[in-house]
Design a protein that fits this description.
Number of strands: 14
CATH topology of the largest domain: Jelly Rolls
CATH architecture of the largest domain: Sandwich
Helix content: 40-55%
Strand order of the largest sheet: 2-3-4-13-7-10-14
Shape: globular
Number of helices: 12
Order of helices and strands: EHEEEEEEEEEEEEHHEHHHHHHHHH
Mean pLDDT: 87
């Protein structure tokens, strides 16, 4: 049964538990940890104030479903948030802004005060789910303005207007985490530095994640421009191309030869493959190889060099570099049992 509590009561419980503020970094008083009240669950929320960014790391698990009742009110502040959900799920039934979010997702949310009151709503988190999340809150749009000035024409038009200050229409975009996002996320969560070094390091990692999110948005826009109409027969051929690619993963065919094998134009295969599977032909192969490698390493029966060879890498160094880019740990660390973000 869900534990239902008002927002005011919820905040009061957190306040009572965290009267004695925890500072994990003795050199940085803007880095604060708030422990989750035991009656709700275990874990914490960590806020770190950077130069133009408020960084939030949530790492907790609730004993029961938790529903927080937010009373009717009015949005008062502009908010720009880049969110990266590694695991756990949560939802809101707010009428003007409902959502359901789960692990392995990211989002960009840019809100403006509407001047209108919203109705009371429920925010729900679910029991026994490890909730691991990194939120990057921008203190102003100036970072984005400077950051994307040279590439903004590649971004969605509604976002360009916001960045240029020509719109105050709220913007929300959700998508899956990309493989490149996992490493900076892990580096933020496990930051080994303190003081000024930590501040510079975390700011750089936040900007890296923002860049990766904007890159994803540009690819989405470009993919929509290059989309084509696929007939059922075309989709069938693309699935057959995927099967051949996996079967021949140790010595994969070229894109042109793969297209010839299934009887489709190579350009249609290239564009259609992304539409059907959400990635390029060889991006799919890479992800498949890395997933097989992860399973073999975690099984622990094969040496790293043998695993590299099994998934088609003649050079163990190239395999190790690709594996770490995808999972954030080296193959030897994975074999030793170090946790990775899948």
């Amino acid at each position: 049964m869900a534990n239902v509590i008002s927002e005011a009561e919820y905040q009061e419980k957190w306040y009572k538990v965290n009267k004695n503020t925890q500072y994990p970094d003795p050199l940085d008083s803007s880095d604060i940890i708030y422990s989750c009240p035991e009656q709700f669950g275990i874990g914490c929320e960590r806020w770190i104030e950077l130069r133009d960014i408020s960084l939030l790391i949530i790492n907790q698990k609730y004993h029961d479903d938790l529903q927080i009742v937010f009373e009717a009110g009015q949005d008062e502040f502009e908010q720009i948030e880049f969110g990266f959900n590694l695991s756990g799920s949560y939802s809101s039934n707010r009428l003007d802004f409902p959502y359901n979010k789960s692990g392995k997702e990211n989002f960009l949310q840019w809100d403006f005060p509407s001047g209108e009151e919203y109705d009371a709503f429920l925010y729900t988190s679910f029991r026994n789910e490890h909730f691991l999340k990194v939120d990057i809150h921008l203190k102003s749009s100036e970072i984005l303005n400077n950051f994307v000035r040279c590439i903004n024409q590649e971004l969605p038009p509604d976002l360009i207007k916001l960045i240029e200050g020509k719109s105050q229409q709220s913007y929300v975009e959700d998508n899956q985490l990309t493989p490149a996002m996992y490493l900076p996320l892990q580096q933020i969560i496990n930051c080994p530095f303190q003081g000024l070094t930590k501040q510079i390091y975390l700011e750089a990692k936040c900007l890296e994640l923002i860049a990766l999110k904007l890159e994803q948005l540009t690819k989405i826009k470009n993919a929509s421009v290059k989309s084509i109409t696929l007939k059922p027969r075309d989709i069938e051929k693309i699935h057959r191309a995927r099967d051949i690619l996996i079967f021949q993963q140790e010595n994969p065919p070229s894109l042109l030869y793969l297209a010839q094998q299934v009887g489709i134009n190579d350009n249609k295969l290239k564009i259609g493959f992304r539409q059907v599977f959400g990635t390029t032909v060889f991006g799919y192969l890479h992800n498949h190889r890395m997933e097989i490698a992860r399973q073999l390493l975690q099984d622990g029966k094969m040496r790293v060099a043998a695993v590299a060879n099994a998934v088609g890498y003649a050079n163990p160094g190239h395999f190790a570099a690709g594996f770490k880019r995808k999972f954030g740990v080296s193959p030897s660390e994975c074999k030793a049992g170090k946790k990775i973000f899948e």
